[in-house]
Amino acid sequence: MNMTLLRTSEAFNMDKTVVSQLSKEKVYETSQLNLWYGEKHALKNIELDIHQNEVTAIIGPSGCGKSTYLKTLNRMVELTPDVRTSGEIKYRNRNILDKSYKVEELRTQVGMVFQKPNPFPKSIYENVAYGPKIHGIRNKKVLDEVVEKSLRGAAIWDEVKDRLHDNAYGLSGGQQQRLCIARCLAIEPDVILMDEPTSALDPISTLKVEELVQQLKEHYSIIIVTHNMQQAARISDRTAFFLNGEVIEYNNTNTIFSRPSDQRTEDYISGRFG
Amino acid sequence: MRVQQAQYSIREMIQERKQKKRIQIERFIPSILSLTAAVSILTTLGIVFTLIFETITFFKEVSVSEFFTADKWYPFAEAASYGVMPLVLGTLKITMIAALVAVPIGLATAIYLSEYASEKTRRVIKPILEILAGVPTIVYGFFALTFVTPVLRSIFPSLEMFNALSPGLVVGIMITPMIASLSEDALVSVPRTMREGALALGSTKLEVTLKVVLPAAISGIVASIVLALSRAIGETMIVSVAGGSTPSLNMDVTTSIQTMTAYIVQVSTGDAGYGTTIYYSIYAVGMTLFLFTLVMNLLAQYISRKVREEY
Amino acid sequence: MKLIDKTIVAKKMPIRLVRNTILKGLFFLATTFGLLVLGILLYRIFAQGIGYLDWDFFQNFASRRPEEAGIKAALIGSIWLMIVVAPVALLLGLGTAIYLEEYAKKNWFTSFIKLNISNLAGVPSIIFGLLGLTIFVRALALDRSVLAAGLTMSLLVLPVIIVAAQEAIRSVPRELREASYGMGATKWQTIVRVVLPAAIPGILTGSILALSRAVGETAPLVVVGIPMFIAFLPKNVFDTFTVLPMQIYNWTSRPQEEFQSVAAAGILVLLFLLIFMNSIAVFIRNKFQKRY
Question: What is the membrane topology noted in the UniProt record heading this document (chain C) (predicted)?
Answer without folding.
Answer: Multi-pass membrane protein
